Amino acid sequence: MSRILITGTSSGFGRAIASHFLDRGWEVLATMRTPSAEGLPASDNLRLLPLDVTDASSIADAVAEAGPLDALVNNAGVGMLNVLEGAEIDRARELFETNVLGAMAMTRAVMPGMRARRSGVIVNISSSVTLRPLPALSIYSASKAALNAFTESFSLEAAEFGVRARLVLPGSAPETSFGRNAVARMGMDVPEAYGDFVQACFERLQSATEKTQAHDVAQVVWRAVTDDSAPMKLPAGADAETWFREAGRSAA
Ligand SMILES: NC(=O)c1ccc[n+]([C@@H]2O[C@H](COP(=O)([O-])OP(=O)(O)OC[C@H]3O[C@@H](n4cnc5c(N)ncnc54)[C@H](OP(=O)(O)O)[C@@H]3O)[C@@H](O)[C@H]2O)c1
User: Fold this and answer.
1) What does UniProt give as the signal peptide span (predicted)?
2) C-beta separation of 20 from 8 below 8 A
3) Cβ atoms within 10 Å, residue 5
4) How many helices (H) and strands (E) would you count in the chain?
5) How many CB atoms lie within 10 A of CB 132?
6) Does the beta carbon of 78 sit less than 6 angstroms from any atom of ligand 1?
7) Ligand 1 atom nearest to CA at 53
8) pLDDT digits (tens, 9 = 90+) for 34-84
9) At residue 188, does pLDDT exceed 90?
10) Can you spell out the DSSP letters for 43-79?
11) What's the pLDDT tens digit per position in 205-251?
């Protein structure tokens, strides 16, 4: 039976990815900071493990406990909705610890096993914000752009040993707790001078008709893991697909 470890499965995309792989007969190591089976299907193939991707000993314990892996999905992530002047640099550092260094540390931890077996797939959950610049998302977008660059470069090293690395770029998914979690963890103290500007930006974002659903992301992660010929970057969700096509046209 194939075995996958997914980070950040307490909610949103991570939970949907875990369910998708369980439904298709995979053994799923669903990891989260505070383990709970809430929202996940009951299954003998489901194992919950505690994991904080910013904590080196937590990573070492989870990877040792997990055993040999066919796939890793670095899904854990934090958002930040604010203009640069409203963002505290300590919070930005914390965000990079999770979104960038957390994914790097997890990748580094599973790589010896995958390299020795000469097989495995690592899928990093990036964002469609790397396809089009948006205001009030500069720090978050920078973290996902760093994740993209890391993954594209690392994939060349990993390919030497039969290991694939891929990026999934979801669009905006208001149905997940992402925005709420971002505000709870990172605050949203928008400086007064930017108030009207930020309000107008959020209204534009909220009025978008195309959206991403958690199951769109799960399906695209499934493709990234199971299809050897999947391209490096895969958009997930109707809005991400539109932006991906438009970014391709403007690059041509
Ligand atoms: N929703 C969107 O609009 C959107 C769009 C594009 C990309 N994304 C990306 O998709 C991924 C999942 O987002 P989501 O929408 O599903 O948001 P979410 O519901 O807030 O889920 C984020 C998950 O990451 C976990 N997490 C945060 N910090 C962690 C840490 N230090 N160690 C381990 N787990 C940690 C959270 O767990 P706790 O319960 O422990 O906090 C939670 O399970 C993120 O990487 C996000 O950047 C989201």
Assistant:
1) none
2) no
3) 27
4) 9, 7
5) 13
6) yes
7) 32
8) 999 999 999 999 999 999 999 999 999 999 999 999 999 999 999 999 999
9) no
10) -TTEEEEE--TT-HHHHHHHHHHH-S-SEEEE-----
11) 889 999 999 999 999 999 999 999 999 999 999 999 999 999 987 76
Q: Write down the CATH number for the domain with range 3-251.
A: 3.40.50.720
Q: Measured between alpha carbons, how far is 66 from 48 in angstroms, rounded to an integer?
A: 10
Contact 113, 61 (CB under 8 A): no
Closest listed residue to residue 136, CA positions, set 78, 212, 194, 207: 194
Give the pLDDT confidence score for residue 252 in this predicted structure. Answer: 53
Q: What is the mean pLDDT of the chain?
A: 96
Catalytic residue among 21, 26, 140, 150: 140
Q: Are 250 and 133 within 8 A, CB to CB?
A: no
State which amino acid sits at residue 160.
E
Q: Which of 72, 73, 181 is the best mutation target for the ligand 1 pocket, counting ligand atoms within 8 Å of the beta carbon and taking the most?
A: 181
Please, is 75 exposed, middle or buried when counting C-beta atoms within 10 Å of its C-beta (0-12, 13-18, 19+)? buried
Compute, in angstroms, the gap from residue 194 CA to the centroid of ligand 1.
Answer: 27
Residue 140 bears catalytic tag: yes
Q: What is the mean pLDDT of residues 108-136?
A: 97
